[in-house]
């Protein structure tokens, strides 16, 4: 440690600290000589490292690996028990490149360090040899043992090929844990051989499945699942790449899917008498039903068998405790055990689940709610997602904790106000992730000892409405935020954001392009003054724009004069990436004419029409939609505007919407004309005359949820 500190001090004084977007080496000593890699170079390795040698040969066309020799003119991979588990030493000398690692994982991290010294094309398998690189000696080890990313394959089905690709992308960044969120209310994605119905039925929603559609793709039966064989292949694929797959079966809440397949697992009380169009809120396992633990033994037994990870994630988040409070059996159990709150029931349930895991030689991993009372076993690993305070709480109780507060690490959050994505945790980009500093967040040295590392997440409920058959949305949301996550989780020296950003743009953008990542660029700077737009991109990317009323995308080549700035939106492009749109303030300006909103579906007392009619927020109907149900917006005075956006559901979330339907527009409030079909429950109108009223009409029976959400209209004035 002392050695490392001295080196860092020297490096800072000499101004030589690099700021790699991928993990930063703690010790890098460039030398004046050069090494030329040629196709004749041998690849020599310890026998145990043959998989890593094969991995390297996917990227560099070296002679086949040989375990029996250790030659000059060679790339040598070897284990060195003196190094830390994931530590490595990469020595590039004129005739020889040697990568030593404390474990195969350390060697793998060393291979990544070598790839970073090569031209970016190496990631596309297009690095033609010979290639000459500077000699150097790099010795490094990660600060945090856990450098994770969570992928929700449950809400949106993300299949084996896409996950395999994702594993490669994570591996390039030294991420070493892939937490797969395999079950949720909307999908069950892992085959359980003793209960094939869990995937054969629960792997699909909508259509004729008893699982309600809820998000997207209503009429279509939508879904998929991993067979155990497919998962085994992914586990092996990831293991070569120093990634452990940690499965999550989300219990006892987030279980509406399995409760649709096995309704008997739910609590024993009548469902709501309120009209919910057949929708059943109940999504938690009954704690008191003894047979539930036999089913859990079947499920978790197979999960423990399939996954080599020490920890099995068993959820524990967002349990709707009211279900237990209404259940006579759960109430009786609470009384018999002298429990004061239903939180203790969750402790009991999680302890029963832990006993199953323990019997299979595993430990539980849980979301932070599961350790609220502090009674849950300290064998567990806690994932602190709700807030930094939740992470501080878990570490102060002595739980080994993965730090991942949503406002820094939920990569399904949008990256600036007008982009796609959620905003409930925060709106943030890679810079904020990079800036997460546990010491500044109030972790004491003692608490820090319980921090195992960091994890980013991609929850996928919005992905289903963004062409999930393509990686674009997933990539855009994750990169470069994952680069920043990888950087802080590796824990190398921090040279500050500006230096990091320069390295990101100068080196890593080209690498990500070669990796095939469709990443997000930071937005360009757009100014509009004196009737002229001026746009600059500080990353050397091309500036483009779109102009309302003119088809296509156009290259920006210099200042653009216009008296109508609200018609323009600018963005940048580079390689496989693009930035979000940036527009003048006038583009976003809206007006709020007096409007009255009513519907045929009745009014929720909690979220009344007046919320939306007064532009204060959403309202909800009292029930789901049926054919010919309607939502009517009646303006006090006819409205002249250039655009009117009418939305059901919540932004980005294809849920609680009019699933299919159309809009009708009226100039007098009496005669209506059809104006277009709804898309994801919404429509944008460009009226060419004053609008007195708009009616949205449903053409579907049922929207998978017990109500429709109505939003205030968004109306853009004529400018
Ligand atoms: C979570 O976001 N409910 C873990
Ligand atoms: Zn119950």
Please supply descriptive tags for the structure shown above:
Immunoglobulin-like, 8-stranded parallel barrel, alpha/beta, binds zinc ion, 4 domains, disordered N terminus, Chitobiase, domain 2, binds acetamide, TIM Barrel, 719 residues, 7-stranded mixed sheet
Overview of the structural elements:
The protein is of the alpha/beta class. It folds into four domains: 2-140, Chitobiase/beta-hexosaminidase domain 2-like (Chitobiase, domain 2); 146-515, Alpha-Beta Barrel (TIM Barrel); 525-588, Immunoglobulin-like; 595-716, Jelly Rolls. The strands form nine sheets. It has an eight-stranded parallel β-barrel with strand order 8-9-14-15-16-17-18-19, surrounded by six helices. It has a seven-stranded mixed sheet with strand order 1-7-5-6-4-2-3. A hairpin with a 2-residue loop joins β5 (88-93) and β6 (96-101). α4 (160-172) runs parallel beside α6 (228-240) and α8 (291-306) crosses α11. It is globular and about 90 Å long.
Q: Rg from C-alpha positions?
A: 28 Å
Helical percent range? 25-40%
Structure summary, number of beta strands: 36
Instruction: Please summarize the sheet with the most strands.
Output: 8 strands, parallel, barrel
Report the structural category: alpha/beta
Shape: globular
Fraction in beta strands: 25-35%
Helix segment tally: 20
Provide the domain count. 4
Low-confidence stretches: 1-19
* Cofactors, ions and other ligands in the entry: acetamide, zinc ion
Record the strand order, biggest sheet. 8-9-14-15-16-17-18-19
What is the H level of CATH, i.e. the homologous superfamily of the largest domain?
Answer: Glycosidases
Report the CATH topology name of the largest domain: TIM Barrel
Arithmetic mean of pLDDT:
93
Give the CATH level 1 class of the largest domain: Alpha Beta
Please state the second-level CATH architecture of the largest domain: Alpha-Beta Barrel
Distance between the termini: 64 Å
